[in-house]
Design brief:
By secondary structure, the chain is an alpha+beta fold. It has one domain: Hotdog Thioesterase (Thiol Ester Dehydrase, Chain A), CATH 3.10.129.10. About 25% of the residues lie in helices and about 35% in strands. It contains three helices and six strands. Strands 1-2-4-5-6-3 form a six-stranded antiparallel beta sheet, with helices on one face. Helix 1 crosses helix 2. The termini are far apart.
């Protein structure tokens, strides 16, 4: 799974705003596979990502959860685009403290994959998500040049 994750990140997501290694202005998430076969990453919830005072902006919470699920697909050797994303914001995410995001593949049916993710801070689940991803077999080079959208 770790090999898939690294390979797919490089070929499909090298410029991603969340985890792209060639995106110096991005969030810099580094996902890894844990013992349970989930992907996870730690995010430093800096104050520059604040919405309300001392709270991580909800849009960043959504990005973190979506990125975790996408990287989970990569770990399984799959590439898919988000078709549906449902988020439950349980508690605010504090800025100035690290948070951990993790995701797992719940089930797959043909080209449709259902994933779940959670964002935890200080041992408490702050947000959860469910996402439906449609598998794609597009060439990442064609997507990069925009030829696939013609």
């Amino acid at each position: 799974m770790r090999e898939n994750l690294g390979s797919f990140q490089c070929s499909w997501h090298d410029r991603c705003v969340a985890c792209g290694r060639k995106n110096n202005g991005g969030l810099g998430l580094r996902f890894d596979v844990n013992a349970a076969g989930e992907v996870e990453a730690t995010f430093d919830c800096r104050e520059c990502f604040e919405g309300y005072p001392h709270c991580l902006h909800g849009g960043f919470v959504a990005v973190l959860l979506d990125a975790a699920m996408t990287n989970c697909l990569f770990a399984h050797g799959l590439v898919g685009m988000t078709g549906e994303l449902s988020i439950r914001f349980r508690h605010s995410v504090d800025t100035g403290r690290a948070a951990r995001v993790r995701a797992w593949l719940e089930r797959s049916t043909h080209r449709l994959h259902l994933l779940r993710a959670s964002l935890e801070q200080e041992g408490e689940i702050r947000a959860t998500a469910c996402g439906k991803f449609l598998e794609t077999n597009l060439d990442p080079q064609l997507m990069r040049t925009g030829e696939s959208h013609g």
